Amino acid sequence: MAHDITEITERKFSILFDWFDHTDDDWLTRADFEQMADVFTAVARPDDHENRGAMREAFMAWWDVLRDIGAVDAQERVGRREFIEAMRTGVTEPKNFERLILGIVDALMRALDTDGSGELSGDEYVRMYQALGIPPETSSAAFRRLDRNGSGSISHDEFRTAIEEFYLGTDPEAPGNWLLGNPLSEG
């Protein structure tokens, strides 16, 4: 079955919306972004103030961008359609993408790479995503796709490439599309 890139992008951003919607009420609020920041910062060591602070700052800036581009309604919440459109038109703008999304990714990788190898093993990757609320079967399948050279680990560059594919990519078969689940599945 052929998939239109707009449809795949909507599915990816809808999966992201569901991941962020901690209250399962079909709205995102500043509190949801604060909770995501808490989830991400919890995977870093408690004394890693630099990376924990960078992740928290990027999540709060992400909320600010949503507000600044008009996606936030009068009740201080963002619906699914508005989130998807804001992701497409504002958050993925190069200046915002680098500061917000890649800011989180870079701080996360630095926090997890405690041995300075620049890589995550399959087990480390699955544990990281499990701590972030993604089931192991999803992250294991994603890891196999993201380990492009079959080395048994994902480098910082491979992870960044996957994130760029997820948020910016137009190739429906790109490995990064599977970071949070299969965007080609129905529903």
TrEMBL record:
Gene3D superfamilies: EF-hand. One of its GO terms (molecular function) is calcium ion binding. InterPro entries: EF-hand-dom_pair, EF_Hand_1_Ca_BS, EF_hand_dom. It comes from Saccharothrix syringae (Nocardiopsis syringae). The lineage of its organism: Bacteria, Bacillati, Actinomycetota, Actinomycetes, Pseudonocardiales. Residues 134-169 form the EF-hand domain. PROSITE patterns: EF_HAND_1, EF_HAND_2. It holds the Pfam family EF-hand_8. This is Calcium-binding protein.
